[in-house]
Structures are given as structure tokens and as C-alpha cells.
Amino acid sequence: MKKVLIFLLLACVAICAAPNSGNANSKTLVIYYSQTGTTEKLAQRISEKVDGEIFALDSTGAASVSPSNYDVLFIGTPVWNDSVATPMIRWLKNHSREFKGKTVVSFCTWWTTQAKTTLDQIVELTPKAKHLEGLDQQHGKTADVEAFLKKIKLLK
After folding, report:
1. Longest C-alpha distance within the chain, in Å?
2. Nearest to 31 by CA among 5, 70, 79
3. Which of 156, 110, 98, 102 is nearest to 135 (CA)?
4. Which domain holds residue 110?
5. Is position 78 within any domain?
6. If the chain, 156 residues long, is cut into consecutive pieces of 10 residues, what is the mean pLDDT of each piece?
7. 133 in a domain, yes or no?
8. How many domains does the structure of the chain reveal?
9. In the 8-state DSSP scheme, what is residue 51?
10. Residue 130 forms beta bridges with which residues?
11. Residues 95, 61: contact at Cβ < 8 Å?
12. Among residues 27, 46, 88, 95, which one has the fewest Cβ atoms lying within 10 Å of its Cβ?
């Protein structure tokens, strides 16, 4: 009887100590285009907080990374004339069919223009994805990435 109780007790301890597999197995990608380094800095801060892989697009928008390999994608761009940067538009269009069932969080950096239309454009370019609230950061300011990630429930 003691052996059975000890076995059950150890089994309970093992189950309680096991990590929560809710998000533990999900793969996260932070992909961005940055011409001046501002969007890159924001992408790096996001990647560090979510423990995600990070990938920078070049000016052609060509990339060896595919959305199909990830569950959550943070998509970042500078605002160019109230729009997503051209290299990011190319990448999103080239992979448009691969966003089905993925969670997308858009983020952008801007200097003198509002970012809402840019964030909305990423949603339009990834219509088959589940979209969470996006993040925008004005040039020269520091967005509170940790508070934002907690707000959208991607960080505890």
C-alpha cells in the first residue's frame, strides 16, 4: 500500500511540475523590414520578450523564411507614405496562402504620420490569419513592449 501511495504522490508531483504546454510548443517568428534601424530595434525587443526567431527582410522582400513554419508571426515595417514598406508587401503577397490558422501581430514605426492605416494594411494582406491588436511606435520614442505583450496575452 505504501508503494502505491508513494507512486501516486510522485506521479502528482511530476504532473504539477510539468510546464504548461499551451504556448510552450508554439513557434514564434518576428519578421521585419527596416531601412534606418528603428523598426529593427523594436523587432529585437519583441523577439527577446517572446523568445521568438527573428528575421530581417532585405530590400527585395525575398526571404527564405515561410509563415507555414510558425504559429505566431509578428510582422514589422516602417510606415512609408501611410503604407507598409514595399519589401514587406512583396513578402506578404508571396506568402499570402500560408497565413491560414496563424496568429498575426503587426507592428510599425513612424516619424510624422499616423500608423493605423499601415497596421490595417497588414491585416488586409493576411486575411486568413487571426489578428491581434497591433503596436505602433513613433520614431524617437520607446514603446512599452512588455506591457503591450501582456495586454494581448502573449506574455504573462
Report:
1. 74
2. 70
3. 110
4. 23-151
5. yes
6. 40 34 70 96 96 96 91 97 95 96 97 87 97 92 91 92
7. yes
8. 1
9. T
10. 103
11. no
12. 27
